[in-house]
């Protein structure tokens, strides 16, 4: 048991170190990619830099607090947190609370504070899906339908916003939880085929999605409209070459590349830090996934292992999709790069997920420690437990005396 705890501690240190490196890189690149834009819009070049620091200072204590709670608490009350996020999503459609940005109702504004509930839905979907699929055949058919509607209703709201990127990620995460659970494989594969057949018409139902698809296939056909973003991203990577133009020296962030500090921050990294910077980011995310999965496979409870694995998959999936879009390997979609892109909702949501992950790891370490203490106690008292009972010698019998019995 001590060996297992040592392995967990070692992997946890590497895991936290990797996240720290991503966050530090993100803070630096948010300032580098946004200071000219922020100076022009807000008359303060450090606007997004201070904003990112503020949300980081809020996210870290929340993450620490969650890591100190029991996983059973979050799974038991998962419906409550999922309901809360659902209500926030509904609020994005209410005039005065929701705000339409670039044709989508994804933001909820409470005063000066803006929140994107879809970022949190990725993790609450995992939370409610774990007990649902693990106990699928232990509940009645009516309960199955009710819980399935409860899980998927807010996911459908993402389509109405519309936010097809977050919708796809949520569907993918729920599928991962289903696959890892005790849900029968034959039902899983048939359901997966049905979902894919359903998503295809949804994908081509909106003209702007079709335009993005054609822009992905041939961005040079419409270089000033649908192909503009990806062409500017190509130019950023081309300018960066191997060693980059130097930190702060990007040309594409000078109002050429839209969302340079957010969705396309990876392009700025490629331009300023070159191939070495791109390699560093990919290496850090691969390390996070590697050490995250190593920790998840050492969790004792199946529900905790499924939760932890799905959370790491969520971070890895979004990072892969973002980098795939920026590199032109996937159609353009509004997804940020976890821990690096500017955005308070994304930072808070991702650290919420990391807090849940660390909660599962902490619970496992405590169980090992408890077992080790019990084992140590048993070993220290084994001499008393295994010592043979003392033999009481009979008094010597004098000559002429006989024993009574």
Distance between the termini: 54 Å
- Form type: globular
Helix content range: 55-70%
Mean pLDDT: 88
Given as residue ranges, the uncertain stretches (5+ residues, pLDDT < 50) are 389-394, 397-405
SSE pattern, N- to C-terminal: HHHHEEEHHHHHHHHHH
Mind telling me the C-alpha Rg?
A: 28 Å
Q: Which class best fits the helix and strand makeup? A: mainly alpha
Into how many domains do the coordinates divide?
Answer: 1
What does the secondary structure layout of this molecule look like, with pairings?
Layout: H1 2-42, H2 47-67, H3 71-76, H4 78-91, E1 98-101, E2 104-110, E3 113-115, H5 117-134, H6 141-160, H7 164-180, H8 185-203, H9 207-217, H10 228-240, H11 265-296, H12 302-326, H13 344-380, H14 382-386
Antiparallel strand pairs: 1-2, 2-3
Mind explaining what this structure looks like?
This protein has 14 helices and 3 strands. The protein is mainly α and 405 residues long. It has one domain. It has a 3-stranded antiparallel sheet, covered by helices on one side. β2 (104-110) and β3 form a beta hairpin.
Structure summarized in a few sentences:
With 405 residues, the protein is mainly alpha-helical.
Supply the key terms.
14 helices; three-stranded antiparallel beta sheet; 405 residues; 69% helix; mainly alpha; single chain
């Amino acid at each position: 048991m001590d060996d297992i705890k040592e392995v967990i501690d070692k992997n946890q240190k590497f895991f936290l170190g990797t996240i720290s490196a991503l966050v530090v890189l993100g803070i630096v690149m948010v300032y580098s990619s946004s200071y000219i834009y922020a100076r022009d819009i807000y008359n303060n070049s450090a606007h997004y830099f201070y904003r990112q620091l503020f949300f980081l200072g809020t996210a870290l204590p929340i993450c620490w607090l969650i890591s100190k709670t029991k996983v059973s608490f979050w799974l038991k009350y998962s419906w409550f947190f999922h309901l809360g996020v659902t209500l926030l999503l509904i609020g994005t459609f209410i005039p005065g609370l929701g705000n339409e940005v670039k044709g989508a109702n994804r933001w909820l504004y409470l005063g000066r504070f803006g929140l994107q509930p879809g970022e949190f839905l990725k993790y609450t979907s995992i939370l409610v899906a774990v007990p649902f699929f693990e106990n699928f055949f232990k509940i009645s058919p009516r309960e199955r339908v009710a819980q399935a509607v409860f899980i998927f209703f807010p996911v459908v709201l993402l389509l109405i916003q519309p936010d097809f990127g977050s919708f796809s990620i949520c569907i993918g995460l729920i599928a991962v939880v289903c696959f890892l659970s005790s849900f029968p494989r034959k039902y899983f594969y048939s359901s997966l085929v049905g979902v894919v057949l359903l998503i295809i018409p949804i994908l081509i139902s909106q003209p702007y999605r079709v335009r993005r698809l054609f822009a992905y296939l041939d961005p040079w056909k419409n270089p000033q409209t649908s192909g503009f973003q990806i062409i500017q991203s190509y130019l950023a990577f081309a300018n960066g070459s191997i060693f980059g133009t130097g930190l702060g020296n990007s040309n594409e962030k000078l109002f050429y590349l839209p969302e340079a500090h957010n969705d396309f921050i990876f392009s700025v990294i490629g331009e300023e830090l070159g191939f070495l910077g791109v390699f560093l980011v990919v290496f850090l995310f691969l390390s996070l996934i590697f050490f995250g999965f190593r920790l998840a496979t050492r969790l004792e409870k199946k529900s905790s292992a499924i939760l932890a694995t799905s959370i790491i998959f969520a971070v890895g999936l979004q990072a892969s999709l973002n980098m795939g879009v920026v590199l032109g390997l996937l159609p353009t979609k509004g997804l940020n790069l976890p821990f690096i892109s500017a955005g308070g909702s994304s930072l808070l949501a991702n650290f919420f997920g990391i807090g849940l992950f660390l909660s599962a790891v902490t619970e496992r370490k405590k169980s090992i420690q408890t077992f080790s203490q019990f084992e140590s106690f048993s070993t220290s008292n084994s001499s008393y437990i295994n010592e043979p009972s003392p033999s009481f010698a009979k008094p010597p019998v004098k000559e002429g005396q006989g024993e009574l019995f």
